[in-house]
Amino acid sequence: MEALPYKSDKPATKFAKAEQVIDATKLDYYAELETSKGKVGIDLFETEAPNTVNSFVFLALHRYFEGIVFHRVIPGFVAQTGDPTGTGMGGPGYQFGLEVTPKLNYDKKGLLGMARTMDPNSNGSQFFITYGPTPNLNQQYTIFGQVTQGMDVVESIHATEGPTARRERDKIISVRIFAKSK
To answer: What is the pTM of this model?
Structure first.
C-alpha cells in the first residue's frame, strides 16, 4: 500500500470546497492517525460514503488535521476532533450533506462518524470515533470508516467530560492516507 503525497507543506485550514481527490471505483483508502497517544489505523468506506471520504482525504492531504485537539471525549460514547479552533464550532470553510446507508449502523466500537449540527447538510471536518454501540446515532450521522488498529490508543485519549475529565487535551500529530487497487 502506498502513501499518497501531501498537497501542502504546512497545514491549510480554510477552503471553499473539497476538490475531488479519490477514485472510489478503483482504489481502497486507509488512514493512519498519529496522535499524542499513538497510531490509529482506519479503513475508510469510500464506496458507502464517497463524498465524506473524499472530503476527509482532501483535508488530510492538505495537513488540515495536524495539531488539532480531541475537543469532546466522553468515555463510553465518543472521542471527537477535527475542529481547528478546538471549541467544537470550527470547520474547513465548506459544508456537505449526510450520507447514510441502511447497511451501516453504529453497532460497535471504533466506527468513524461525521459530526454535524442539527442540519443534515452541515458536515465539514469534525469527526468522532465511537467507544461502543451508539444506536441513537443510526441513520443520523454519516459512518465513513472503521478503526482496524489502535483502538487501545483511542480508548486512552483523555476524557474532556465526566468524572475522569482532564484539562490536558490529546491531539492529532498527523494523518497519512494510503491507497491500494481494489
So the answer is: 0.97
